[in-house]
Specification:
This is D-xylose 1-dehydrogenase (NADP(+), D-xylono-1,5-lactone-forming). Helix 5 packs antiparallel against helix 9. The longest helix is centred in the last third of the chain and has 18 residues. The chain has two domains: 157 residues, NAD(P)-binding Rossmann-like Domain (Rossmann fold); 172 residues, Dihydrodipicolinate Reductase, domain 2 (2-Layer Sandwich). With 394 residues, the protein is of the alpha/beta class. It has an eight-stranded mixed sheet with strand order 8-9-10-7-11-12-13-14, with helices on one face. It has a six-stranded parallel sheet with strand order 3-2-1-4-5-6. The structure holds NADPH dihydro-nicotinamide-adenine-dinucleotide phosphate and the ligand O=C1OC[C@@H](O)[C@H](O)[C@H]1O. NADPH dihydro-nicotinamide-adenine-dinucleotide phosphate binds next to helix 1.
Amino acid sequence: MEIGIDRDQSVSPKPSIRWGIVTTGMISQWFVEDIVLDRENAPVAHKIQCIGGRDMSRCEDFANKYCPGANPKLYDSYESVYNDPDVDVVYIGTPHAFHKQNMLDAIAAGKNILCEKAFTINAAEAKEVLEAAKAKNVYVHEAMWLRHRPLVHQLRKLLFDEKVIGDVYRTFADFALEIDISSLPPTSRYKDISLGAGTLLDTGIYSLTWAILTLDAGSPTNSERPLALGVQSHQEGIEVNTSILLHYPSTGRQGIITSTTQSNHNARPFCTIWGTNGFIEVEGPAASMPLSFTVYPKVEGDANAGPLERKGGKKYDFPQVGRGFIYEADNTALDVLAGRKESAIMPWSETLHVMEIMDSIRKQGDTFYPGHDEALEQSTGPVMQVLQRLGPLS
Ligand SMILES: NC(=O)C1=CN([C@@H]2O[C@H](COP(=O)(O)OP(=O)(O)OC[C@H]3O[C@@H](n4cnc5c(N)ncnc54)[C@H](OP(=O)(O)O)[C@@H]3O)[C@@H](O)[C@H]2O)C=CC1
Ligand SMILES: O=C1OC[C@@H](O)[C@H](O)[C@H]1O
């Protein structure tokens, strides 16, 4: 069957896309529940063509619970999803450590891919995947769903086109999620280093994304490489706290970025952006799920004389459909149907850009993933590179 021909044109005369879902885990559940929602104005009809997992009974339960009525094929292997000729695009929801191999396998079978964040464990793995995708001429897209939200597009328009807060100079962003590592089973993806456990790749990536989106007007196609200084702390060998200072040399803009699994107490708001004429607070349950932002004028007065009152702001609300996965799903479908190989919202260069910044932070923070990071561990870190450039200190 050709891509994009809806099998039931009488009911839904719109383009359609057939998804092969890899894993029955939590994110696959969230993603599938959203994309099968009945939406009047959906630009694409999303079909769950098949579901692949390591266990057939989990696949059955998944299909019954999260896409009843979709009648997908069920497979007890991921390979069967890659080899299903009726799949237009594969959604990969395994833990980060498997993303590289899963994507290489899907690419070898000639499949288009939407793969969960973090795209891979490090930038070298990301390059390997993207080179394979290029050679095979398939679509690959990192599922950084945040970037697809209408809220983000509106916020960046106000920031960089309309300059509603003047010239941006600073952003704070936080992602806090309380996960008691010691009480988790050793097989949990939050505890098992071989699955990619650690806050930066899991949730710090959102805080970093907020800083990039609000400090770098050139993102995603012409991103500037910021200076990134990071510290990380560990519990039972797992990175549980990351704090990063970002500095953009061309503008002097700075970001303070944090992620932790030691507290549920997210910064409120989870993101604040300051400019020369005002500031913006972004709110929502977490940095992955922004629901509104408020634009405030600059707070005037002498801070030394006492606490200063903020003046009333203008609030922009963005009620989401489902959990908010439809935006990346619709855009992915439209890309694939149009024959594009990259997403304009999260192009390959931006995935590499983010992975390279995270590599640099992990190098400084002494967080390495065995079996993935040997080259990174042996490389010269960013702080040493600066010291070497400066020469001997007298
Ligand atoms: N965009 C977002 O908001 C979110 C994204 N994520 C991302 O999604 C990915 C998966 O996270 P999440 O769904 O929470 O993880 P889960 O642990 O809930 O699911 C992962 C699934 O991967 C499969 N799997 C294959 N091998 C293993 C293994 N050795 N150990 C554990 N699972 C294995 C399993 O599915 P099966 O048995 O069916 O093969 C498992 O259910 C991560 O990369 C994460 O960063 C996660 C949460 C939210
Ligand atoms: O992407 C994510 O967002 C929500 C978090 O709960 C989860 O750990 C993370 O993977």
